[in-house]
Write a structure and sequence with these properties.
Blueprint (H helix, E strand, L loop, with lengths): L4 H14 L4 H14 L5 H13 L4 H44 L3 H8 L1 H20 L3 H15 L4 H19 L20 H23 L7 H14 L4 H14 L8 H13 L7 H33 L3 H4 L3 H29 L3 H15 L4 H17 L1
Amino acid sequence: MHVSRWQMVKTLFRIGATSYGGPAIVAQIREVTVLEKKWLSEDEFRESLAFCQMMPGPVAVQTSAHIGWRLYGGMGVFLGLTSYSLPCFLLMLGLSAGYFRYEQVSLVATAFQGLGAAVTAIVVQSILSMTQSALQDWRGLLIAAAAAVGFFTGQEVLLVLLAAALAGVLIGMLTSPRTGAVADPVPAAPATPAGSRYHRTLLLTAAVAVAYAGAIVGSGWISPKLPALGLTMTKINLVAFGGGYTAVALMFQEAVQSASHHWLTAKEFIDGLALGQITPGPVIMTATFIGYRVGGWVGACFATVCIFLPSSLLMTLAAPHFARIRHLRVVQFAVRGLLAAFIAMLLHVLADVAKAAFRGPTDLVLAAAAIVALRLKVNVIWVVVGSVVVSLALARI
């Protein structure tokens, strides 16, 4: 059926303004675009989702962008990405401004004290949810264990991730049968390049990529911190496979632990991640919080663009070739190696977050209660809000 650009923008904006909860966001996108609007068939949606799961970047954002690509090509990617992400960005921008202005107010500081336990529980839940797909057998466990040694001994993050990807390829090629090595439940029915239209998309994508690179270099005229911020967010975006929490782990490594940056304290990062949980949309929007800390509203806008745009450009180029990409064993094994390494990285983040968050047995009990609540499918918003309420109540005792 024909879908106007305005219909697509309005619908994806509404989803972005009302969707919470990682996989639940993808489910809501499917409900609206497949069951309600009937823009896509069930197989087309599953195909888009399978493709976006193989690409770097947040899955829900990429899925919205890929739906836009199906409807309007390269322009659809821009419209889908922007309309879905804009509501969350505006909310996060306002919350970031309020946080850094009032964080020293005693009532605000007390309210945020309980968030450490909630964020610890959220990280635990993300590890448990990723384990089934990332650690399917002894190969994933082996790569995760080796990556954990690298992270906990302070090795360069990108080198550890690269080694994990290479290990995934080598181990997969040596130990898996030639056929049937990787489950392939989604039928292949991708669109193919459409002649001159695809050539125009290639030219436009290349032009945007050049302008983007120029913007990162030129941002130094505004603030000397912005080029490093842009490059860091670009790096995170292009290597974060498996969902938003892999990007969060990378953000923690770069924004808190990096000796060259150290933009946030562990406590500030915990608070920013909690704010990302109470806003709709992807948790990767924590980049807006980091950007605001580095460069005010300009830094927030810049970091947000850099955390979304690179993988969207890559998706635009790769989308017409999905059928071939998804069957490349080397790609599948590399992604598996990266996912195993991200489990190890999240464990490292968990250790540091717990160290910063736990001040006594009360925090430990609160974190345990939050973990149980998340395992029982309680919405993460209520877990975060409950932690704040308990923190305020305990302060009055």
